[in-house]
């Protein structure tokens, strides 16, 4: 575990007083460095104590520029989500534990939104009916488009039918978020999948349909059990927010210029696509499918490493010891598909990579397993990712609306040819 995430003192973490003493300045100067971007701080578990990276402070003391991973490095304070090796905490609550206690997507979305008791979600309809989609029903031919393209169109149409879309209050943003998510679920189409029956076996208590119930028949024609629909629901809940990922940062930039919540969602969708973010599980799904078709997990893994230069579903830029979302989702997948022989393909692929790599499995390995076992198309994981993270983007928009507008303006250093005389 990285001590900087949990304690001011330690091999890497310094309190403000310790940083000031090391630099020979006052504590007020430390915070001035933060405001100018010279130093960067994180928050300790108590949500109040500032923690500084020892290596960065030492580099500043020696008169060197702190090491940077790229040209742009920024730190934003947030009260929403803390991400570390010891877990994901949303507004102070352990996300994995919350989901294990039975919470689903709506509960996690309301948690990150700080939703109010008098605000209710519309009922999720497991049977697609374009006429009931909140202004976001599919247009002719939409089913042939990738999910993200469908979602962009659905969100744009839903925005156009909401006369209150420019209400940037927390309550207004939450209303827009619920409306967009319900429309996305109602409008998504997959070629060859035309569900006409509820996706989950009737239960004795006739429980209220979940977002996972609604999404399952949009992605697969395979019959579902409560445990399998719950796997989709857990996926949505675990992916709601994960700090300042690329798409979330894009959403915050849009919110900083006071874009409405639908436009913020559009900005997030624009940055989500691609094999290094929302579509990371696609390669995992294809790897499982290749292993099944060839009957040889090692050959499938070797082929994907040859093509991509890496094993998809392993490693993470944030976590060093574990991705807590992986274990939580895989536990549900193993329960839901315990009697499915195809689960052994998932295990064999995982073991082949694990024998050759010290990299940790990440949540994309589990999402790819879910879409593979549920006989969904390979891009199904991207669709689940987009629906879930929409809730996170709205939460970050609400937080950004409280900040000074137009605060994101990186300085460009021109390196082109000199102006002609």
Overview of the structural elements:
This protein is mainly alpha-helical and 421 residues long. The chain has helices at 16-23, 27-35, 54-61, 95-100, 105-113, 147-160, 170-187, 211-219, 226-238, 246-256, 261-272, 280-294, 297-308, 324-336, 343-356, 363-373, 380-401, and strands at 13-14, 41-43, 50-53, 81-84, 87-90, 93-94. The chain has 17 helices and six strands. It has a three-stranded antiparallel β-sheet. The protein has a three-stranded antiparallel β-sheet with strand order 4-5-6. A hairpin with a 2-residue loop joins β5 (87-90) and β6. The protein starts with 12 loop residues before the first strand and ends in a 20-residue tail after the last helix.
Reading side by side through the largest sheet, how are the strands ordered? 1-3-2
Please report the number of helical segments.
17
> Segments where pLDDT lies below 50 for 5+ residues?
1-11, 65-69, 130-138
Number of strands: 6
Helix and strand content put the structural class at mainly alpha
Approximate helicity band: 40-55%
Q: State the distance separating the first and last CA atoms.
A: 57 Å
Q: Based on Cα principal axes, name the global outline.
A: globular
What would the average pLDDT be, to the nearest integer?
Answer: 86
Q: How much beta, percentage-wise?
A: under 5%
Radius of gyration: 23 Å
Order of helices and strands: EHHEEHEEEHHHHHHHHHHHHHH
Describe the main β-sheet briefly.
3 strands, antiparallel
Task: Summarize it.
The chain has 421 residues and is mainly α. The chain has 17 helices and 6 strands. Helices cover 48% and strands 5% of the residues.
